[in-house]
Amino acid sequence: MKHYYALCLAYGLFSLSAAADNAEEAVTTSEGVETPALTVSPETPAVGTDAPEPAGFLTGMLNSSIEKAMPQADPAEKPVFSRTTTGWASAPKFGGYIIGKYDYTSYSEQNGQPAPGTNSFSARLIRVYVDGSIFKDFKYRLQVELQGGTPGPHVKDFYVSWSHWKELEIKAGQFKRAFTFENPYNPWDVGVGDYSQLVKKLAGFSDYIGNEAGNTGGRDIGVQVAGDAFPVGQDQHRLLHYQLGVYNGQGINNTDANNQKDVIGTLQVQPIKDLYVGFFGWTGNATYSGVTVRRERYAVGAKYEHNGWSARAEYAHHSGTAGSRADAWYATVGVPCTPWLKVYGKYDVFRKQASWRGATSIYSICPNFQIHKNLMLQLQYNFVNDRTKTSHHNYSQLWVETYVRF
């Protein structure tokens, strides 16, 4: 049955890609010139694995000043590898963003007993980052979470990578695990106010089998090889994308606690430009409070990002120590309505022990009002059916989030 759903998903996304290409309506400007109404940009913005993050208001000016001040190497000169070489390095590019949140929940529980609904304001994320390159082939990145609370301010990403060809990249440090399509997405690009339960529970955010020192954001420390191979078609898009990583298995900013490594990988096929169908695998161990638990996971899915249209759907399954099981799936569709409004819908399910008795299902509608590259307002309504609650399985949530790049 799962294979049947996967085939239906692939067919649906193929159909969506054809519809999106034909969905541009012509509108007349004040000058009387017809322009496409739904085209967000001539080229689809890169999202997902290591997609570039634009600078904000202040960091954009900072980056421009640094770039002008840095001496530039003559491209005609041959690079000199030496400990005294100072040229052949790009100007470092800084960026940062803030996500503030208000959330209201109509029902809650305390110690298993019904309790009044809750509402609160919070700082969801406050991050700064810097990246750059040396000799063009070596790239580096550092990202820091500044928000307080548990575990407090901490490093999210730090890595160095080398890539001279599109077919091969070698990366070492702390970065996103190569598991699921949604995990590598930047919070600005996910489209809804949070990642899916599948990613949060089974890709190592706050993992199903135990918290990895708080919210790790789907990251771990290790080494990875990746690449894009076999250009095909008139646009020469890459048919195959692969990633294979070896990680500690303990999440961010932690050394290995059991000397056994996690192995995670993905194979993705791009039959037409911007449509990916992928398979993901994960095997490994994690140790919490002296107890080692096993993780055996796989995921299958597809994604499509083109001309402002978005569609993602994934299924993942977990099996582990003492017969523990879980599975999850989601489907997300984003429809561009105007140059500043995009509306997302999402169906999101997580099941403890892969059983409906332990299922939490979330139905979401989320309009995104992005009136500037560096400013977005997001409203979201969630209808939640949580069968793990002792009573009142159905309740509502309302989220309001503000996104600002600085």
Short description:
Helix content is 10%, strand content 52%. It has 406 residues and is mainly beta.
Q: Total number of helical segments?
A: 3
User: Roughly what percent helix?
Assistant: under 10%
Percentage of residues in DSSP E strands: over 45%
Strand segment count: 20
Q: State the distance separating the first and last CA atoms.
A: 47 Å
CATH superfamily: Porin
Number of domains: 1
Quote the CATH topology. Porin
Main beta sheet, described?
A: 16 strands, antiparallel, barrel
CATH class: Mainly Beta
* CATH architecture label: Beta Barrel
- The run of helices and strands is HEEHEEEEEEEHEEEEEEEEEEE
Low-confidence stretches: 1-42
Which strand order spans the largest sheet, edge to edge or round the barrel?
3-6-7-8-9-10-11-12-13-14-15-16-17-18-19-20
Roughly what is the average pLDDT, rounded to an integer?
Answer: 86
Q: Pairing-aware structural class of the strands and helices?
A: mainly beta
- Overall radius of gyration: 22 Å
Outline: globular
Structural key phrases:
Porin; disordered N terminus; globular; 10% helix; 16-stranded antiparallel beta barrel; 406 residues; single chain; mainly beta
Describe this structure in words.
With 406 residues, the protein is mainly beta. It has helices at 2-21, 57-69, 197-202; strands spanning 26-28, 34-36, 93-105, 108-110, 113-115, 118-134, 138-145, 154-165, 168-176, 219-232, 237-247, 262-272, 275-288, 291-306, 309-320, 325-338, 341-352, 359-372, 375-386, 394-405. It has a 16-stranded antiparallel barrel with strand order 3-6-7-8-9-10-11-12-13-14-15-16-17-18-19-20. The chain starts with a helix and ends with a strand.
